[in-house]
From TrEMBL:
Gene3D superfamilies: NAD(P)-binding Rossmann-like Domain. Keywords: NADP, Oxidoreductase. Transmembrane segments: none annotated. This is Tropinone reductase 1. InterPro entries: NAD(P)-bd_dom_sf, SDR_fam, TR. The lineage of its organism: Eukaryota, Viridiplantae, Streptophyta, Embryophyta, Tracheophyta. The gene is TR1. It comes from Acorus calamus (Sweet flag). GO terms for molecular function: oxidoreductase activity. SUPFAM superfamilies: NAD(P)-binding Rossmann-fold domains.
């Protein structure tokens, strides 16, 4: 690479560098979301995460703070439009009106045949797995424009390409 060009690659260990970047990861207290938060921090990003499980979120936040990781967090039920809007207001305040990365990670799964899923359960899965990501992406748009660089990631699932019994609704919502 020519001198003076900026690269997201760190020449020493060939890792991506996200130094100076900001990120929001939904569902960051556990599992894949937790790993994504830690990877983004490890690459230099400042991360805001949310989760509906306050206990798990507080425990993760305590560990990240003890390690000196630049992570901010709040409890958010992404099935609620009002809570999603509040979340993005907090993210905007935390990052000075800018956001570089949005990771739509949350997902709810019911391990039952489609004929056994109620209308209420259907609505919950759709609100969590589809509506929240679409709405958060809309809300993130102005923050990403302000940052000059924006990336939106939707976490999908192997269930969207490999048939598995009793997860058809989840698979439908995670096929990106």
């Amino acid at each position: 690479m020519a001198e003076g060009n900026t690269s997201i690659l760190n020449g020493e260990n060939n890792k991506w560098s996200l130094s100076g970047m900001t990120a929001l990861v939904t569902g960051g207290a556990r599992s894949i979301g937790h790993a994504i938060v830690e990877e983004l921090v490890g690459l230099g990003a400042s991360v805001y995460t949310c989760d509906r499980d306050e206990t798990a979120l507080n425990e993760s936040l305590r560990r990240w703070k003890a390690l000196g990781h630049p992570v901010t967090a709040s409890v958010c039920d992404v099935t609620s439009r009002v809570e999603r809007e509040r979340l993005m207001e907090r993210v905007s305040e935390t990052f000075g009106g800018k956001l570089n990365i949005l990771v739509n990670n949350v997902g709810t799964i019911l391990l039952r045949p489609a004929e056994d899923i109620s209308a209420e359960e259907y609505n919950l899965i759709m609100a969590t797995n589809l509506e929240s990501g679409f709405h958060l992406s809309q809300l993130a748009h102005s923050l990403m424009r302000q940052s000059g660089k924006g990336n939106i990631v939707f976490i999908s699932s192997a269930t969207s390409v490999v048939a598995m019994p009793s997860v058809c609704l989840y698979a439908t919502t995670k096929e990106n």
